[in-house]
Write a structure and sequence with these properties.
Blueprint: H1 3-16, H2 19-26, H3 30-44, E1 49-50, E2 57-58, H4 60-87, E3 91-96, H5 101-113, E4 118-123, H6 125-133, E5 139-144, E6 151-159, E7 186-188, H7 195-207, E8 215-217, H8 221-230, E9 234-238, H9 239-245, E10 248-251, E11 258-265, H10 268-277, H11 279-286
Parallel strand pairs: 3-4, 3-5, 7-8, 7-9
Antiparallel strand pairs: 1-2, 5-11, 6-9, 6-10, 6-11
Pfam family, one: HTH_1
Keywords: DNA-binding, Transcription, Transcription regulation
Domain HTH lysR-type: 1-59
Length: 303
Amino acid sequence: MDIVAACRAFVAVSGHGSFTSGAAAAGIPQSVASRRIAALEEHFGSRLFDRTSRAVRLTPFGQDMLPTARRLVDLADAMADDAERARLRPLRVAVPEICPPHRLAALVAAARRQRIHLEVRPAGPQERARLCQTLEVGTGIVAVPEATALWRVPLGLAARTPFPASTVFLETLRTGRARTQARRRILIQPEDDVAHLRDPLTRAGQSTGLAPAQVSIAPSLVDAAAAALGSPDLLLCSRQQADDFGLHWCPLAGLRLVRGYAVAAGAREDLDQLRTVLYADIARCLGAAGDGTTGDRPEGTAT
């Protein structure tokens, strides 16, 4: 017996004083209302209604049971409302602040088509990790080394003028003893200020004789791009970012630098939604080398 459905019929009939009217109010046939109430009476071992008169009247037992039945029906309705709200709950996700707004909008739209209600929160790599740890977001796209990445974004150097070769050798950025020309800096944007990207580049610069100040952290992507647009300085970035800023891009020789991204999530369902259902859409936001459309996804471990 569906005790909630039976109580709903019981409450409806008692409120209208008639099986016909009560059943209509409950949206069920009269015969169904009669069977449900009969089953409820059999379950509790006592009659709920006095059916001897033309108008249906509650028995003393029915009067005692009616308040509890109403509470049960109200709780069932409240639970259904809570379930609907839970299905529509926003999935708060921390994303790299370098993701272009139009691509983030496309990601949110794609998620809604899959009945996933994303609420994106752009942040830097350290802040994204903190937001996930403190559970201020349900999930996050976090920076990881290439070996454990689900999405990978190759990095190179970007400049306002074309490069003379197909790759850039760091030793070509050294200044001679005469120092007749200004030192060209390599600017690291905040998104790449993580140990697995910053430290290898710094060590490579030192080993090739670059001055310490030639590899520096920029306060923001805008500042770094502005410097690259208005001076000989070089911006460490992805090809997509270089194209967005109108800069010329070239990979580094002998040094592979790749942004790696994985998913950090508290719930397995949220994890699966981001790394499967929305994999290609997230790849486009990140400017990843493969967007998943060919089916050849990079192997990786999600956090």
